[in-house]
Design goal:
7-stranded parallel beta sheet, elongated, Rossmann fold, 16 helices, 2 domains, alpha/beta, single chain
Length: about 400
């Protein structure tokens, strides 16, 4: 199939799942092109990349500095110019609801296009619901062939907002477990090594990790531990000050952004992977973090929260440990449980690896995505990139 993957920026360091999915589909023989608003620095091997508006792409940067109303108006003028190009494909695969809504607007104005499949990831559901703005997806729910949510929580939100239930499904992301060696950690071989890998934003909950570790220090002053944080973001200085205020800064190291290879190296040396995600004040929420999947595949014990789709990946007490959101007392208890119960760690690590291999394996998820795409292409009667629309009630 000829597949157009539509994103805002490409390549994006924090969205490796887009690149992995695109390369995975291309490796299976599909003709894949990336359509983006903005090209960023970075390599995207073996993938064609095109910007919206082609030779007029510079105007996209101008539009980005305008008010939302004027952006919408400008895109209403220029986006339909892409219709001829979009009709060359068999299917349009949009990442994030905002991009799906943009393509649905083109369908509304210019008529038939190849079937549109949209994957919803997180803030495109949480913040939109929080703002009471799900109406922005009205055209997408009408014209989209399929809405795929990365967890069941988001699927229910989309259906409640008006997305047809039969065309709104869960599609988990995945990783390649074979690329991550599994190594159970040997307890008692040194300080408890704790790692977080995340953007330093509110929804990642790193402040609660720091408070929990301050409590660990208070309850078990003799326990040796170190906490490394990989990632950058606007909260970095605030979190550094918090670590000093809690008198744990000698145990905490902020490593900044690192390459994927460096992240995996640090992960292999860690006993605990700590990600106490929370729902942010603006409604932003996790999908199911890929970093948790990688940690579970590696043999580290995941300590996270009952947040959004995380319990769909981590079974509390079986393949990891979960605490309520914003509960640093419970979080500290989970960390201490890992430190004190060495017999639990091996069984939990192996259960976590099995969980990822069985249900969050990228190849298996690509199989499912291929099947979903092939079904909508077949149902829409798409031949050689010609978009032939069927009524919504006849869609799969």
């Amino acid at each position: 199939m000829r597949i157009c993957i539509i994103v805002e920026r490409f390549p994006q360091v924090s969205e490796t799942f887009v690149l992995d999915q695109a390369l995975g589909l291309a490796a299976r023989g599909h003709d894949v092109e990336i359509l983006c608003q903005q090209r960023t620095k970075g390599d995207a091997p073996a993938l064609r990349t095109r910007q919206w508006w082609g030779g007029l792409a510079f105007a996209e940067d101008v539009a980005g500095r305008l008010s939302p109303r004027l952006q919408h108006k400008l895109r209403g003028w220029f986006d339909p110019l892409q219709v001829a190009h979009l009709r060359r494909f068999d299917v349009l695969l949009a990442h994030f609801g905002y991009q799906g809504a943009r393509v649905a607007g083109v369908i509304k104005r210019a008529g038939a296009l190849p079937p549109l499949v949209t994957i919803f990831h997180g803030h495109d559901v949480g913040t939109v619901q929080h703002d009471g703005a799900t109406r922005i997806y009205g055209d997408l729910f009408r014209h989209g062939a399929l809405q795929l949510a990365v967890n069941d929580v988001f699927r229910r939100v989309l259906v409640d907002a008006g997305s047809p239930a039969a065309r709104t499904r869960v599609h988990h992301l995945g990783i390649s477990p074979s690329a991550i060696p599994f190594q159970p950690r040997a307890p008692g071989s040194g300080p408890l090594s704790i790692l977080s890998v995340s953007r330093l934003t509110e929804k990642k909950g790193i402040e609660y990790a720091l408070h929990a570790l301050a409590r660990v220090k208070e309850v078990r002053p003799g326990l040796e531990w170190r906490y490394r944080i990989i990632g950058d973001g606007h909260l970095k200085e605030e979190l550094e000050r918090l670590a000093a205020k809690l008198s744990i800064d000698e145990h905490v190291e902020f490593l900044g952004a690192q390459s994927h290879a460096e992240v995996r190296g640090n992960l292999a040396e860690s006993d605990v992977f700590l990600l106490p995600s929370v729902t942010a004040a603006n409604g932003d929420a996790e999908g199911i973090p890929v970093s948790l999947m990688e940690a579970m595949a590696s043999g580290a014990i995941v300590v996270s929260t009952f947040h959004s789709g995380i319990p769909e990946l981590v079974e509390d007490g079986i393949s990891g440990l979960l605490a309520p959101e914003r509960d640093d007392v419970a979080l500290a208890e989970k960390i201490l449980a890992v430190a004190e119960d060495s017999s639990m760690r091996d069984a939990m690590a192996r259960a976590a690896r099995r969980r990822v291999e069985a249900d969050f394996n990228m190849e298996a998820q690509l199989d499912r995505l291929e099947s979903e795409i092939a079904a909508v292409v077949s149902a829409r009667g798409v031949r050689a990139g010609q978009g032939v629309l069927l009524p919504a009630e006849e869609l799969p």
